[in-house]
């Protein structure tokens, strides 16, 4: 391989940590004309495959809460390591997760939800709140906070892990943060699920987009 090309390729695959820049890990805009594919407009081509009860109107996906999910393969090839990670999504729901599903998994890496963004039921299932979870090389961290999401309105949820903290932002407002060194994030298994936990925790509602950013 030509050395200049090798250098460029290395730079493209592994942006320098600590350079202050943010890079897109995956960006699923969910505006596809195809009803079977969810295109990743980021640099890693992590296109998703639609399975079960998911319908598209070309701008948002509607998940049926029973069998609908998007399965994304290839994420284990993209290094994360010590870089900050932000998992975010814009969603709308008009039901608190019921006992049939327990909670809604919105974006879930494997195994065990290495990182995940969920909607969980609280206060005897009267309200729905955002959940962030990160499982790093040192420890795990979990946050549940923010406004009741069960109002049939659009909400943007963002979960971030940095070197020293995990943070949950809802609709641009920081609603929870914890000082914790979670450690490095490594995806050792495929796939990433959008809208389910591998046949459970089925999401019932709409997604406008979901994305993962590094840095
Ligand atoms: Ca769950
Ligand atoms: Ca969209």
From TrEMBL:
The residues the entry assigns to the signal sequence are: 1-16
Q: Which UniProt keywords apply?
A: Lectin, Signal
User: Can you tell me where the transmembrane regions are?
Assistant: none
GO molecular-function terms, A-Z: carbohydrate binding
Report the SUPFAM superfamilies cross-referenced here. Answer: Concanavalin A-like lectins/glucanases
Q: Where is this region: Disordered?
A: 24-51
This protein's record includes keyword Transmembrane = no
User: Which regions are flagged for Low complexity bias?
Assistant: 24-41
Q: Can you say what this protein is called?
A: Concanavalin A-like lectin/glucanase superfamily protein
Organism of origin is: Oryzihumus leptocrescens
């Amino acid at each position: 391989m030509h050395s200049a090309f090798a250098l460029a390729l290395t730079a493209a695959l592994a942006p320098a940590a600590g350079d202050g820049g943010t890079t897109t890990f995956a960006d699923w805009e969910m505006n596809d004309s195809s009803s079977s594919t969810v295109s990743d407009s980021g640099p890693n081509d992590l296109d998703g495959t639609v399975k079960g009860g998911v319908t598209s109107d070309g701008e948002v996906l509607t998940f049926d809460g029973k069998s609908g999910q998007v399965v994304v393969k290839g994420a284990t090839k993209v290094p994360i390591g010590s870089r900050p990670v932000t998992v975010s999504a814009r969603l709308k729901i008009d039901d608190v997760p019921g006992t049939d599903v327990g909670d809604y998994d919105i974006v879930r890496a494997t195994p065990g939800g290495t990182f995940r963004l969920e909607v969980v039921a609280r206060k005897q299932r009267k309200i729905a709140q955002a959940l962030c979870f990160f499982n790093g090389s040192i420890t795990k961290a979990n946050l549940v906070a923010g406004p009741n999401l069960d109002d049939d309105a659009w909400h943007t949820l963002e979960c971030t892990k940095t070197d020293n903290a995990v943070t949950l932002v809802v609709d641009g407002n920081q609603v929870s943060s914890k000082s914790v060194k979670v450690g490095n994030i490594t995806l050792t298994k495929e796939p990433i699920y959008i809208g389910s936990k591998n046949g459970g925790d089925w999401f019932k509602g709409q997604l406008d987009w979901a994305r993962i950013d590094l840095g």
